[in-house]
What does this fold into?
Amino acid sequence: MSVSPTTQISPGMQVFFGRIFPLPFIIIGAVAFFFGCRNLLQASQSRTWPTAQGVIRDSSVEHQRGNKGGTYLAKVMYDFTVNATTFNGKRVAFGDYSSGNSSLARDIVDRYPKGKTVAVYYNQKNPQVCVLEPGIKGQTWLLPVFGLIFLAAGSITAVVISKAIKLQAADELCTQGDKAEGQKNLAMEIQNRLNLYRNREK
It folds into this structure.
């Protein structure tokens, strides 16, 4: 069994595709999955957090420019006091994200206009971790799912390429074995012809 030269992978490319290429996917996926799971845990716990009265300090739709018209993000900032200490928050719900649809951001801004009094849910151990809408929302799943997809893609790529490299190595061994066997047979054929020629001369 032989391998076509066009399908063979050089040692340098083996290192690149087998180890380096999947690495960014694995790292990005692992980081996103970690922070996404942490968000899920905090979102779940936030339903039982204590609350404090807060006031919306600023509320606006922020347009972030991009190649395809950009995205829109609801920028909501609020102040609240815990044990005579004032804290600032900007999280409406865990997993807040920007969208190409401005109406989503506008709906949030309309719910939380500037000057409105709100209930702020805060982590008692660290009040800086706070939220206006506690619990797990649909968008809370985006980051962990994104991370899991990247992590799986990087891992599968590493495994598939590793197997392909091992198959190539096995094919090369088979090819080398076939060549050695052929050379051995050729040498035996030459030796037999020489012996036959010598016998005839006698």
